[in-house]
Design goal:
The complex is a heterodimer of chains A (371) and B (276). Chain A has 371 residues and is an alpha+beta fold. Chain A has helices at 2-13, 22-27, 71-79, 121-131, 136-149, 165-177, 195-212, 223-229, 247-252, 257-262, and strands spanning 31-42, 45-56, 60-64, 86-91, 94-95, 106-109, 183-187, 215-220, 232-237, 240-246, 267-273, 278-281, 284-287, 296-301, 307-309, 317-327, 332-337, 341-345, 356-360, 367-368. Helix content of chain A is 27%, strand content 32%. Chain B is mostly helical and 276 residues long. In chain B, helix 3 (63-97) runs parallel beside helix 7 and helix 7 (147-173) crosses helix 9. Classes of the chains: A alpha+beta (371), B mainly alpha (276).
């Protein structure tokens, strides 16, 4: 209770900012955002458990995970809208945990946009600048240029209820970027848009981020969206970071069962270790490149990395029978026993159910999962 | 169902007209009889505006006109003062209830804030009379039955209604816009003045309207807390009809009705304008 009161009043009362210590700046040069060992519980429910990640200046980082994994709470903690129980947040090398939301150099694009209904598009975008008492002529220039960057010039005098969902979303973006924040936070900003518009906005978002050269942190549960826009993905599950890395690496080299399953596409193969790099699986003996840490565990391989061979391949060959074949336009998806393995081939490979095939599962593409 | 046809639609139309009839026929009857030439009774003897003219007669010569003027001033002073005070306090209470209280405190506050709004007037009046009795023993003079005690009493029950309306609007607005304002560097004061207050304005005005109307209408609580020099219109009408219903009471009631209707229409227009 006392803590709550203190939090409540600190948003207006505290004015002192702590200068960055030597070590923080030295340890993370060029990082605009550092999240260090952040934990948070609501009552008895642990929402975040010792979460750490960084975002370099100008990087597009996505916090990806299923609903309830804590990604939005993490975003709110960075923005200062929630407080962490433990851990630190550094923005541009400066600890900001003691700063209320209105004194942090970040801006948020909210899930439902949160446009002020009583203010015009222009005044919505100008709000942050006016809060900081920026002189009027500068406010006008900056608002105009950010409206035109987002192709909103004609809507400046409209009110939020007079514009479409896609336009609202762009106004919310303009309202955030006009302040030139150190880090722009985006909380599922595309979830309310239809599929076609979403694809357009994803590209626009990426272009905008490149043009501004600012750090963007996006929260989403949509792995396609994450892959389209991000430089790096931080994959979260049950309040922990499951895996983080460059986008292609997180997709192609899942480290855990969750990571492999979340991207939805990979084949999971149960395995038993029989040698340092040899495992026995439901599809036969396979050679892997890293030594499994388990005795019984799982391997993962994406359908597009499984090769179709005319004869028995020299290594990791699997003799199978096509059970089902789905034509997808740009590719053909086959379900093959044993396994069943999902295999993705060029549409030229016309294989009918019942035909026998040789498959190769390249060792360098077989991921040994941690669990 | 709303776009239903045939018998259903006919039925809803009849029901709607019946409902409107119940609401407005008695009021129209009062308005009509205020133009009757007869001094009392319900027999129509001819059209006249003499009762209106007499209400506005020179207070020096007409006792009735003097009384009515005093009563009208009392009613407006009581309504105005209690509305202003209860609107400010009720709005602050609604805002205060939004503070991040622990959920147990929050639930308790929510359940007790509505009680004054639904408590029987007579209970409320009895409690107030007792409270003023106690206070009179502590501080003399201040709590003698009169305008002060009436304003305090009216404020006490009006707060609940103002809070009810402002709070429901606050809940409808939700926390996100406040968060957006904070995210856009707004200090708590700027955030209140530029976001919360403009969005709450229609609810505050609505709450004030309701408070004023309740004060104007109140009889029970006024009856228990008024003094000899603070008679309001409902009390005056009650006292007068003890001596028989005179036609000028219909005239007073009609003027009161027109006043309330006009103020509601003006305020509604005002809130719509503010909203757009």
């Amino acid at each position: 209770m006392i803590q709550r009161l203190r939090d409540f009043f600190s948003s207006s009362a505290r004015r002192i900012t702590r200068p960055p210590t030597e070590s923080e700046a030295a340890r993370n040069p060029g990082c605009s955002l550092v999240v260090e060992n952040v934990s948070k519980s609501f009552g008895k429910t642990q929402i975040l458990n010792d979460v750490s990640f960084t975002a370099e200046a100008g990087e597009f980082v996505t916090l990806l995970g299923p609903s309830g994994c804590g990604k939005t709470t993490l975003l709110r903690i960075i923005a200062g809208l929630d407080r962490s129980d433990r851990g630190r947040i550094l923005l541009a090398g400066r600890a900001v945990d003691h700063l209320p939301a209105n004194r942090r150099p970040v801006n948020t694009v909210f899930q439902n946009y949160a446009l002020f209904p009583h203010l015009s598009v222009f005044e919505n975008v100008a709000f942050g600048l006016r809060s900081r008492s920026i002189p009027d002529p500068e406010v006008r220039d900056r608002v105009r240029s950010s409206l035109s960057m987002l192709k909103l010039d004609d809507l400046a005098e409209r009110y939020p209820h007079q514009i479409s969902g896609g336009q609202k979303q762009r106004v919310a973006l303009a309202r955030a970027v006009v302040n030139e924040p150190e880090v722009l936070l985006l909380d599922e900003p595309m979830s309310a848009l239809d599929a076609k518009l979403r694809a357009e906005v994803q590209l626009d978002l990426r272009r905008l981020q490149r043009a501004l050269g600012k750090t963007f942190v996006l929260v989403t549960h949509d792995q396609d969206e994450a892959m389209t826009v991000s430089d790096r993905i931080v994959l979260m599950n049950k309040g922990r970071i499951e895996q983080q890395g460059v986008t292609a690496e997180v997709y192609e080299r899942p480290q855990s069962r969750f990571a492999a399953e979340f991207f939805g596409a990979a084949n999971l193969i149960s395995a038993q270790r029989v040698g340092a790099t040899l495992v026995f699986t439901t599809v036969g003996a396979l050679r892997v490149q890293t030594t499994p840490q388990w005795e019984f565990g799982t391997l993962a391989i994406h359908p597009e990395w499984i090769e179709l061979c005319e004869n028995e391949p020299p290594e990791n060959g699997v003799r199978g029978v096509v059970r089902e074949s789905f034509y997808r336009g740009d590719h053909v998806e086959l379900i093959i026993e044993p396994g069943p393995l999902r295999v993705q081939l060029s549409p030229r490979a016309r294989l009918t159910p019942g035909s026998s095939v040789w498959l190769a599962l390249p060792a360098e593409r077989l991921e040994v999962l941690s669990d | 169902m709303s776009s239903g046809r045939g018998p259903w639609r006919a039925l809803t139309t009849v029901a709607a007209f019946f409902g409107f009839g119940l609401l407005y026929v008695p009021l129209l009857a009062v308005a009509m009889y205020s133009f009757n030439t007869a001094e009392r009774g319900l027999i129509w003897t001819g059209f006249s505006v003499r009762w209106y003219i007499e209400l506005l007669a020179d207070p020096e010569t007409s006792r009735r006109a003097r009384e009515i003027r005093e009563v009208a001033v009392n009613t407006l002073v009581l309504g105005g003062a209690s509305t202003v005070i209860s609107t400010v306090l009720g709005t602050l209470l609604a805002l205060g209830m939004r503070f991040p209280w622990p959920s147990s405190v929050s639930r308790l506050l929510e359940s007790i804030v509505d009680i004054p709004a639904v408590a029987p007037d007579i209970t409320f009046a009895a409690v107030l009379v007792m409270a003023f009795n106690v206070l009179r023993r502590v501080v003399d003079h201040w709590f003698e039955p009169g305008m002060t005690t009436m304003i305090i009493s009216h404020v006490t029950f009006e707060i609940a209604f103002v809070t009810l309306i402002v709070r429901s609007r606050l809940v409808a607005i939700g926390p996100t816009l406040s968060e957006a304002a904070m995210d856009l560097y707004a200090s708590p004061w700027r955030h209140f003045r530029r976001v919360t207050l403009p969005l709450l304005w229609p609810a505050i005005v609505g709450g004030a309207m309701l408070a004023f109307t309740l004060s104007l209408n109140d009889f029970v609580i006024s009856f228990f807390t008024s003094g000899p020099r603070s008679v309001t219109l409902p009390l005056y009408v009650y006292q007068s009809q003890m001596r028989g219903v005179r036609t000028d009471l219909f005239a007073i009631s009609t003027l009161l009705l027109i006043g309330v209707a006009a103020s509601i229409m003006i305020l509604e227009r005002l809130t719509r304008w503010r909203h757009n």
